[in-house]
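During the no-cost extension, the postdoctoral fellow (Dr. R.K.) reprocessed legacy sequence entries with the updated structure-token encoder. One reprocessed record is reproduced below for audit purposes.
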Amino acid sequence: MALFHQGNRQLQDAFDTRRLADRIDEVLVSETIGHSDAVFIQSVDHFFLATVSPDGMPTVGYKGGAPGFVTVVDDRTLAFPNYNGNGMYLAMGNILETANVGMLFVNWENGHRLRVHGAASIEQEDELLPQYPEAQFVVRVRTASVFPNCPRYINRMEPKKQSSFVPEKGRRTPVPSWKRSDWAIDVLPEDDPALDPQAPVE
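Re-encoded structure tokens follow.
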């Protein structure tokens, strides 16, 4: 998979950055996940996921979990869980149709960021599923390009608190209050935890 297309090249030539872009591609871009990248990926508690629909409409979403929820399976494969959400499956539906994804990992304290491009697949019976409490299925990404980005414009922020909705083994996960709203509760899936009156709500 070529990293640059004609649109990239047009702007690189307009601003005289083609040589720099080619050098970055030569020196920093890899098809595989190196050791330091693997350590970083497996330390994060969130990332941003970009997908594209069959008609070319992109969407980007936030994926969060406990630190280490993204697993580096091998030097060409990442895996992460899909948890109960709003039921729209915008990104996951795109994966079923087009497979291509972009992943952006950011450390907001030091500005380090890493991009991963690849082809994703959904595995409903994945061997990793038992390690992710309450996950619906596992998404695997076969990497095509892995490369760092300049941290220059990353605003520095400190982590405050992990979301209480991240599933943990041995703890009952609360349900979001919006699922108990009049407009939503009558159309929830039959097995949605929000339908249990004993479930904690936040």
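The mean pLDDT is 95. The CA atoms of residues 85 and 176 lie 10 Å apart. The remaining legacy entries will be reprocessed before the final report is submitted.
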